[in-house]
Amino acid sequence: MLVRGPFHRLPARPSILAITSELPWPLDRGGHLRSFHLLRGLAADFDVRLVAPIEPGQEALVPALSAAGIRVCPVRVGPRRAPIETLRVFRAALTREPYVLFRRHDRASVRHTVSVQVAINRPDLLYLDHLDSALYADTCRVPAILDVHNIYSALVRRTADEQPNPIVGQYLRGEARLLERAERRAATRAALVTAASDEDCAYYQASGAGRVAMVANGVDCDAYAALPLIRHSRPPVILYVGTMSWGPNVAAAKFLALDVLPRIQLRLPDARLRIIGRDPPPEIRALAERPNIDVTGAVPDVVPHLGEAHALAVPLESGGGTRLKILEAFAAGLPVVSTPVGCEGLRAEHGVHLLVAPRERMAQALVTVLSNRLLAYGLAERARSLVRDHYDWRSIGMVARREARAVLRCRSAARELQMQDAG
Predict the structure, then answer these.
(1) How far is the C-alpha of 359 from the C-alpha of 152, rounded, in Å?
(2) What are the structural domains of the chain?
């Protein structure tokens, strides 16, 4: 029952139907971390159902989400097959829509499951995780929150610029233009767009979104609190963390191994590079054959590696959003050296929380951090304070809940005005 006046009473436990393109577990990559922690934060005030495709063997991952208050409505799918994906590419081209990061995730089985869940229990809100989930926004006429992890068109355009194959680069630039259209369309249709940085918020505001809110990426500060602010062990270890199935991470890891590490070793001969990330291709695995380079592949827990490292290097030239790997390093008390692209979107200042250097000065900046313990300690101390004050997932979850409730209040107010006009 609505109360007339400036305050509108909401249901004690409103319901959210969330849609995402893959199960956000395990927490081994940035997208999973953001999706999981925001949904867990929303589950404190909302009944959250999550429609997500799951592949064979992933059923065992569902209980971890249930324990966080997220009720999974699984959509069982098989592995991707080239003929079907080729058909999706052609269909996307015919409709002038992007396949990359969009139509690739258009599944009839997901659409059916969403429709069934709406029929069983109509939600108060839709929560569309990533741009591709906007494909299903028309399945239920309730306000939708679109959480954008990146500016997807910028991410693809930067990836195109790094492509050695001109044909692939041209294709990706075309996809970037189509993604811009998809971003504008999705932003204008959503009741609220939530983005990870001020820069991303400004982009989606300019794209026509009616309402945009900054819901930053975060980190579980408690998980890293026991790690020291300075590393005394030797030899110095430079860490790189990233999913190795993504081209820009492969390029960054190779750059560190083949260009940066040899230059560092002119000053620090025993320096080592450790590359962590799932699905390393042969060219990355081959780097482990070189002296002083470790390639771990996926690791069950990155915390011990953060504790053993002396610096995190982020020499990225592509990407978007904010880097959860940097936030994790900040929380772990690990000094960070990053390119401007690598740390964009963070409220972190060069010389205060980290060192920012272009690729041509990356080796020099890393030598400075590895050689100057007082500088390294100061950067790590201030960076850890920064994440505790602004980037802890618990406080970010509160922001997500506040914004979701504001959407419901706007809807209640609009309904009340309609009733008054009808009366």
Answers:
(1) 23
(2) 15-218+393-422 (3.40.50.2000), 221-390 (3.40.50.2000)
CA distance 7 to 412: 10
Q: What is the pLDDT of residue 422?
A: 59
> Where is 72: in which H helix or E strand?
strand 70-76
In which element (H, E) is residue 177 found? helix 166-189
Cα 296 to Cα 274: distance, rounded to the nearest angstrom: 7
Six-digit token string for 248? 């820009």
Cα dist. 158→173, 179, 227, 317, 358 in Å? 9, 13, 35, 7, 16
Contact indicator for 242, 249 with CB cutoff of 8 Å? yes
**Residue 119, number of CB atoms within 10 A of its CB:** 9
Structure-token pair, residue 253? 């890891």
- The answer to whether 113 and 75 have CB atoms below 8 angstroms apart is yes
Contacts of 159 (CB under 8 A, 6+ apart): 172, 247, 248, 318
Report which secondary-structure segment, H or E, holds 161. helix 152-161
The residue behind tokens 């009616």 is: 210
**Alpha-helical segments (H) within 258-392:** 261-264, 282-285, 303-308, 324-331, 362-371, 373-390
The answer to whether residues 88 and 56 touch, using CB atoms and an 8 Å cutoff, is no
Counting every residue written for the chain, the total comes to 423
Matching residue, tokens 């304070």: 385
pLDDT in tens, 390-414: 999 999 999 999 999 999 998 876 6
Whole-structure pTM value: 0.86
Question: Cα separation of 407 and 109, whole Å?
Answer: 29
Residue matched to tokens 């060192």:
355
